[in-house]
Amino acid sequence: MTYALVLNSGSSSIKFQLLDPNAGANDEPLVSGLVERIGEATGAIALTVRGEKITSEVPIPDHSAGLEMAFALMAEHGVGPSDVEITAVGHRVVHGGKVFSAPELISDQVVEMIRDLIPLAPLHNPANIDGIEVARQILPDIPHVAVFDTGFFHDMPPAAALYAINAETAAEHGLRRYGFHGTSHEFVSQQVPDLLGKSADEVNQITLHLGNGASASAIRGGHAIDTSMGLTPLAGLVMGTRCGDIDPGIIFHLYRQGLSIDSIDNLLNRQSGVKGLSGVNDFRALREMIEDGDTDAWSAYNIYIHQLRRFIGSYMISLGRVDAITFTAGVGENASFVREDALAGLDMYGIEIDPGRNGLPNDGPREISTDNSRIKVFVVPTNEELAIAQKATQLAARMQTSVS
Ligand code: AMP
Questions:
Q1: Coil, strand, or helix at residue 192?
Q2: Tens digit of pLDDT for each residue in 303-357?
Q3: Among residues 149, 226, 323, 341, which one is catalytic?
Q4: What one-character-per-residue DSSP string does 291-347 give?
Q5: DSSP string covering 16-46
Q6: Chain segment 217-276, per-residue pLDDT in tens
Q7: Which positions are catalytic residues (predicted)?
Q8: How far apart are CA 125 and CA 57, in angstroms?
Q9: Residue 331, ligand 1, Cβ within 6 A
Q10: Annotated binding site for ATP
Q11: Atom 18 of ligand 1: nearest residue by CA position
């Protein structure tokens, strides 16, 4: 069997999986791991190998050491990079700007192009580059592929992609709606035509990726025509800790009140959203608080649902005809109450949730609407690692064929 290694590098962490790219969306990877607290006094490596959990608490000076240590730990358990055949390494890269529309085989030049995009994703792209450089050094003979979070939205119509900001300034600074979570929206939306028994080009659909980060997309015939995140992943829906769409004037106002740009950034990205309103960002805790009568939690939940319904409504109008609405990611897959409230009272638009189906535990792609519902509602588990593994393996194989 051959495997793909998928890496998602953050500023102080590396998440990775070693998996069979032909596996099913719900299959366990051979290895999943997390190297965390890189550069801090106490670091940790957590691995799950064939279901067995292995942890090691050890200082991790940098990304390079972290990946080396993780590979050594994997080797101790017979699943190191020299124990299994790895045909491709897929790297999640957050921002592909206007340059990258599809996965790209990584060369020195591609790394430089990703580096040029750092101003658009100052928190994410530098960490992604660290991961790429380290992994290329450790595994120099395997093709490395960058898979961009923005790629799926690359061909959005200008009316959805452009902001009504002075055109010269927008062009100079690359200001446009890039969209994020593209790998997830694509992976999930590609399964919907089969669930409907239709071909991809005849399906109009809305996908709702509701995790700690959250985004909505309108997709016509397999192409995204709108999405809720923008230049950055701060825009759109209310999220775990991010505010989503707000009046941009709030930023000037806070700045003029004396808050620094960095503290406003921190406020809107990390201290807002459901957490900023209620104190928690996990929907299980939020629900418990609501059941205990906590009014802040109730208010946070209502603001979250209100914003979600605004996007669903506007995408129904943009698409004209909608065949399916699909929920995915941690909240979308597990929180039946969110799905119910997001689509409550929409019978007149042809949307009817079946409470029995909606209440079933998360177990693979499934319909949760009634048989009469004109618009079908689905839960489709996302698996971004598998999607990246598939894209990386396919591109590596294509390159192999074109070289030989
Ligand atoms: P993700 O970013 O896709 O990993 O989603 C993480 C979020 O999913 C968590 O912060 C929770 O809010 C939510 N979540 C995960 N499991 C459940 C569950 N069983 N019920 C409700 N929410 C859940």
A1: helix
A2: 999 999 999 999 999 999 999 999 999 999 999 999 999 999 999 999 999 999 9
A3: 149
A4: HTT-HHHHHHHHHHHHHHHHHHHHHHHHHSS--EEEEEHHHHHH-HHHHHHHTTT-G
A5: EEEE-TTS-TTSPPSEEEEEESTTSSS-EEE
A6: 999 999 999 999 999 999 999 999 999 999 999 999 999 999 999 999 999 999 999 999
A7: 149 (proton donor/acceptor)
A8: 27
A9: yes
A10: 15, 209-213, 282-284, 330-334
A11: 334
Cα(339) to ligand 1 centroid in Å equals 13
**DSSP structure class, residue 280:** -
Q: Residues 48, 31: contact at Cβ < 8 Å?
A: yes
> Hey, what domains does the chain have and what are their CATH numbers?
2-148 (3.30.420.40), 189-384 (3.30.420.40)
Q: Give residue 282 CA to ligand 1 midpoint distance, Å.
A: 6
Using alpha carbons only, what angle is made at residue 389 by residues 73 and 239, rounded to the nearest 5 degrees? Answer: 90
Using only C-alpha atoms, the chain has a radius of gyration, in whole angstroms, of: 21
Question: For ligand 1, atom 15, which residue shows the shortest CA distance?
Answer: 330
pLDDT confidence tier of residue 362, bands split at 50, 70 and 90: confident
Ligand 1 pocket test, pick from 284, 290, 338, 383 with the greatest ligand atom count within 8 Å of Cβ, gives 284
Whether 354 is catalytic: no
pLDDT band of residue 48 (cuts 50, 70, 90) is very high
Encoded tokens for 286: 């939020």
- The pLDDT-based confidence of 294 (bands split at 50, 70, 90) is very high
By most ligand atoms within 8 Å of CB, the mutation choice from 239, 275, 331, 382 for ligand 1 is 331
Taking a C-beta distance cutoff of 8 angstroms, is the pair 127, 10 a contact? yes
Residue 96's DSSP bridge partners are: none
Rounded distance between C-alpha atoms, residue 300 and residue 290, angstroms: 10
What are the tens digits of pLDDT across the range 105-143?
999 999 999 999 999 888 889 999 999 999 999 999 999
- Residue 211 CA to residue 225 CA, distance in Å, equals 22
**Mean pLDDT value across residues 146-163:** 97
Q: Which residues are annotated as a binding site for substrate?
A: 92
211 lines ligand 1 (CB under 6 A): yes
